[in-house]
Amino acid sequence: VLWLETxxxxxxHCKGCYRxxxxxxRSLAELRNEIDFAIRMRNIDTVCIAGGExxxxxxxxxxxxxxxxxxxxxxxxxxxxxxxxxxxxxxxxAGVFGFTNHVDMMQERPESKKGYTELDLMPLRQKICDxxxxxxxxxxxxxxNMTTYHENFKYIPDVVKWARTNVxxxxxxxxxxxxxxxxxxxxxxDVEVRANETAEGIQSxxxxxxxxxxxxxxxxxxxxxxxxxxxxxxxxxxxxxxxxGHIREYKWWGQAGVLxxxxxxxxxxxxxxxxxxxxxxxxxxxxxxxxxxxxxxPRLAILATALxxxxxxxxxxxxxxxxxxxxxxxFKPVYFQSVGINQPPDMLEDGSSSMCESCPDACxxxxxxxxxxxxxxxxxYGRLMNAIVVTQDSDKRVKVEPLPKEAVTREDLA
Length: 414
What we know:
There is one protein chain. By secondary structure, the protein is α/β, with parallel strands linked by helices. 30% of the residues lie in helices and 22% in strands. It has 13 helices and 21 strands. Strands 1, 2, 3, 4, 5, 6, 10, 11, 12, 13, 14 and 15 form a twelve-stranded mixed sheet that branches. The protein is globular, with a radius of gyration of 22 Å. The protein starts with a strand and ends with a helix.
């Protein structure tokens, strides 16, 4: 994926927003250059058009047209507040591949009221997917993001169940654990020491700071366990992406459920099957996929996974076999619907950052690829900030400071 920042303007506010208004709308020429750069350097499959809010970017239609003309999938990351049927139709005609709609109860939305929960936002989610479906009839890839806080953690299974009742309209959901730069006692940042920045200054410049570390302690395994406890064997991931900080850290979970049109879950796609499909896509398209254009397959294709030796799909195949006892199901396809989990960067106990391996959502910054979720630090300070953990040794405070990047020599390393 290339994460493409079109604008830093937005029409609503989200808690912990990773972008602030600095430069407004970016030029179409600059965005085209970044797309060509990512094609050369990363062999991308999808361009995630983000912001700010990309639907208020004035050149959104020609941008989508350009991405589609390069044989890529334009996927718009939006809060959907500005989405209308006509806009969806215009973007569909321009070649849009999909919409990833960010909806959660902690957003400051005009549609929300005080005391609203994720259950109260189900009609809004339904309205959005109905609008998109009206235009694309299921051919526009439609997913939902929900940032996960302590306040809405318990509603994760409810959002999944809602999505399953709309399997023909909703291709997937993803739960992103809330993260923020900790501004707390015991942690200092190198910009405080070396750039004479204050904690208050960091908070004013970065929207994703957090003074209470207990607010950023939900991890991907917590989300996984909740889904397993409530959904049982109908939820099981087939792929994961690790973190740079610990061998047992899971930054992304990838899952694909196998369902019928009415939302009945037959099981999950297994790891060998996912690997096989990725290989076929690479052989035919020359790159691996982030999203597939179609979300259906013949039931016989699921049974054929036995030839791959995918034992993880044995219960899925058994359910498909039973469904074929009814001849009316012989020619009805199955649907795929993903349930993903994402745990953004964490600060470890020693002050280092644990990032997502190879960052799926990298964006271009001054001729390099950097993590989009931490782009704000590059924009404000020219690089990622480094934490300085202040430790307690008897009555003496000891600061453990990393060497400045420019001061590291071979002798220092030795």
